[in-house]
Amino acid sequence: MLTAQAVFYYMAAASVASGLLAVTRRNPVQSMLWVLALFLHVAGIFLLLSAEFLAAVQVIVYAGAILIFYLFVVMLLDLPDEEAKPRFGKHWPFAACVGVATTLLAWLAQGAVAPAAGRLPDTGAAFTGSVAELGKALFGPFALPFELASLVLLAAIVGAVVLARKRGERT
Amino acid sequence: MTGIDVAMMFGKIGLIFLMVLLPFAVYSTLVERKVSAWNQNRYGPNRVGPWGLLQPLADGIKFFFKEELVPDGASPLLFKLAPALSAAPAMLTIAIVPVTFPVLVEGRQFAMSIADIDVAVPFFLAMGSFAVYGILLGAWASNSRYSLLAGLRSSAQMISYELAMFLSVVTVVLLAGSMNLTEIFLAQTPNATLGQETSGLWNVFRFPVGTIAFVVFLIAAFAETNRHPFDMVERETEPVGGFHTEHSSMKFALFFIGEYAAMLTMSALITTLFFGGPSLFGLVASMESPWLRAGVGFAVFITKLAVFQFLFIWVRWTLPRFRWDQVLHLGWKVLLPVSIVNLLLAGALVVWGVY
Q: Fewer CB within 10 Å, N or C, chain A?
């Protein structure tokens, strides 16, 4: 148990630290790599909660697909020019306030929403995080929200295609 | 975790490292040069040792003594980290591949992969998508336009072919009903004594879905390992030497080892997913002694592995390269639709109880 807690605190601290580093680096590519570190540590927290499938999906989707696309675009930018610009926009104090407020809200609400929050779940209890159980849950009781989420994603994809097409162009 | 667990763990790591990863990753370079020589009616390297067998050693020594150059304006840490990042995912993936039948030690069954995890397939996919970072970062950190061009091409290519590869692996998962690689290969073993009632057919012979999934996976595997005919990252006529143009000495060698380790991993996965891993039409699985079964199974597995490793090399020296737009066309407009339809078909066939 002590080992699990130590690992958890390392993962949590490293996630927060790499998140902070990601927003403060001047070089966009370095920022991206700190975001990568953040994703990997979050995947580690999922592993600790014995949600192995979620950890793998975290790496596949966020680290493997989304971040690669960001990197792809950032590498085509004029980096010296980017680095000379101010790192933060005018609205950053507002954004920081929202972040702190959300954290406080989560802190205050943790007792009300999940009484067991703050304790690591016993592995091998009700939910073992196995893929079969996850599949049954997704296509059983949670089928409607799951399908709705996929519809939202589909709408986003269609929207992206519409925006990317030039006006008046036929495909 | 008892003493046996720890001993088995180190035993398996030693076995897979010494008998699979090291010889295949190192000697593939020699085999590649020999096969290319035969294809071009030459002798190939034959000066160091008998039939040139010590050539990889000589290459290694040479690489260690080469000067290490870091180009101006390169970002030094990423430049040095990139080769390791490109070699590590391929070597990590070999940990989930079962190299032979489970063995019995003091009444307990041990699966013969280093990590016998239930999420083996997602793990492989995660490592596969992670492999892009080594190439992309190595290319960007070199501060060279040719490298960057090659790196961007490779990332676009690898992302495109990943999708088709994912879907064909999911087809196999549907056929086997499991994401554990040991269970996937046992489902292709025609012997009920191993605790499973199976048809025992290799997935590649499960016409049509298994066969189509295999073809898609094979093509995508060539693209994912950046091998011919998909070697957009280093086609000599355009981006000079590709993403590793600026890397010298052992850093270049590590990129090279990474490529061969990736080929090895892909061969191992093709063997496990589609060709029954260590099983051979029930001949091996029906052996009485579990240790004999494991030994012969290992030999069968290594043989299949070598066949596919040879296929990778054979194709490289036989087929011409695709043009860049043809690569993306094939990935998005042919392989992806084919594998989606194939997946739906596999789902329907499994539900109707055909398989």
A: C
The whole-angstrom distance between A91's CA and the closest CA on chain B is: 31
Say if the Cβ atoms of B152 and A33 lie within 8 Å.
no
Quickly count helices (H) and strands (E) in chain A: 8, 0
B17/A contact by beta carbon, under 8 A: no
Which chain A residues are within 8 Å of B151, Cβ to Cβ?
75
Are the Cβ atoms of B129 and A36 closer than 8 angstroms?
no
Tell me whether residues B119 and A53 touch, CB distance under 8 A: yes
**A1-83 adopts what CATH topology?**
Four Helix Bundle (Hemerythrin (Met), subunit A) (1.20.120)
Please give chain B's pLDDT, 355 residues, in tens. 678 888 888 888 888 888 888 888 888 889 999 999 998 999 888 888 888 888 888 988 998 898 888 888 888 888 888 899 888 998 899 999 998 888 878 777 788 888 888 888 989 988 888 888 888 888 888 888 888 888 888 888 888 898 899 999 999 998 888 888 988 888 888 765 555 556 678 888 888 889 999 999 999 999 988 887 888 777 666 666 677 788 888 888 888 888 899 999 999 999 999 998 888 877 777 777 778 888 888 999 999 999 999 999 999 888 888 888 888 899 999 999 999 999 999 999 988 877 6
Number of H helices, E strands in chain B: 12, 2
| Dihedral of alpha carbons B333, B336, B338, B341, sign | negative
Going from N- to C-terminal start, the domains of chain A cover 1-83, 130-171
What SS3 state is found at A130? coil
| pTM of the predicted protein model | 0.88
Q: Contacts of residue A56 in chain B, CB cutoff 8 Å?
A: 119, 122-123, 125-126
Angle between helices B249-274 and B55-65 in degrees, nearest 10: 140
Identity (one letter) of the amino acid at B193? T
A72 vs B156: CB contact, 8 Å cut-off? yes
- The shortest CB-CB distance from A68 to any of B117, B159, B179 is to B159
A65: closest CA of chain B, how far (Å):
7
